[in-house]
TrEMBL record:
The lineage of its organism: Bacteria, Bacillati, Bacillota, Bacilli, Bacillales. The keyword NAD does not apply. The keyword Oxidoreductase applies. Signal peptide: none annotated. This is 3-oxoacyl-[acyl-carrier protein] reductase. Gene3D superfamilies: NAD(P)-binding Rossmann-like Domain (3.40.50.720). It holds the Pfam family adh_short_C2. GO terms for molecular function: 3-oxoacyl-[acyl-carrier-protein] reductase (NADPH) activity. Keywords: Oxidoreductase. It comes from the Bacteria. Belongs to the short-chain dehydrogenases/reductases (SDR) family. Its EC number is 1.1.1.100. It is an enzyme of class 1 (oxidoreductase).
Length: 255
């Protein structure tokens, strides 16, 4: 496969980091993005460059329109036009609370970071992808997002991601004839260090909440993204893919 330029938002750590490493291992040039994790981004950049591909790290908050424009401008100037866009970044409030207990600023931040920012990023890269008749766009959701069920105590986050479900499907249809695929990845509840682990590292671990019986790893997510970015994956578009070991985050697994 011809080397492509992949931009992964929120990629200094966690699932974004594993995605960047996986795409780099396939020979793609990588644009890392971070907000505060400058040290981690610099270390990852060195690691990826040692793999024989180009890599840059750009600080930008993708919740803000002006920062999105600056991010894309810098990637295009230093690497070239974006072929693969992985929208990994997005704020999440783990504390469970009723919608009425959210501050207005928190509501706007969650919507901007998980829905509006993603749409604006897609909008910026589409013209270049259309010109080359090739593109891969990946969105991130949550398990069973496609069902649009009620998720008490997660109202804002769920609303943003469910809106992104519809956008994913619509954009996939609109851009299919241009050789651009658009899919959504819905990870299970992968926490902490497991986000940067490989499958072999978690095989011996036990997770009583997941029907599969083991926790998820960063590799579980990154390998699916890498598959969707392959040349011959052009017939896979508009899909909302749960990668969760069978876990339903809204209705917990009961043995």
């Amino acid at each position: 496969m011809e080397r492509k330029i992949a931009l992964i938002t929120g990629s200094a750590k966690g699932l974004g980091k594993m995605t960047a490493l996986t795409l780099a291992s396939q020979g793609h040039h990588i644009a890392l993005n971070y907000v505060n994790s400058k040290h981690e981004a610099a270390e990852l950049q060195q690691q990826i460059e040692a793999m024989g591909v180009q890599c840059i790290a750009v600080q930008a908050n993708v919740s803000q329109a002006s920062e999105i424009d600056r991010l894309i401008d810098e990637v295009e100037q230093r690497l070239g036009t974006v072929d693969i866009l992985v929208n990994n970044a997005g704020p999440f409030i783990r504390e469970r609370r009723l919608f009425i207990d959210y501050e207005r600023e928190e509501i706007m931040e969650m919507l901007q970071g998980n829905l509006i920012g993603t749409m604006l990023l897609d909008h910026r890269v589409l013209a270049g992808m259309r010109e080359r008749k090739w593109g891969r766009i990946i969105h991130f959701g949550f398990g069973h997002a496609a069902e649009s069920r009620a998720w008490p105590h997660r109202a804002v986050y769920a609303a943003a991601k469910v809106g992104l479900v519809s956008f994913t499907k619509t954009l996939a249809v609109e851009e299919a004839s241009s050789g651009i695929t658009v899919n959504m990845i819905c990870p299970g509840d992968i926490r902490g260090d497991n986000k940067e682990k490989r499958i072999e590292e978690v095989l011996g671990m036990s997770d009583g909440e997941t029907p599969r019986g083991r926790p998820g790893s960063g590799e579980d997510i990154a390998r699916v993204i890498a598959y969707l970015c392959e040349e011959d994956s052009d017939f896979i578009t508009g899909n909302i893919m749960d990668i969760s070991g069978g876990l339903d985050p809204i209705r917990p697994y009961v043995k």
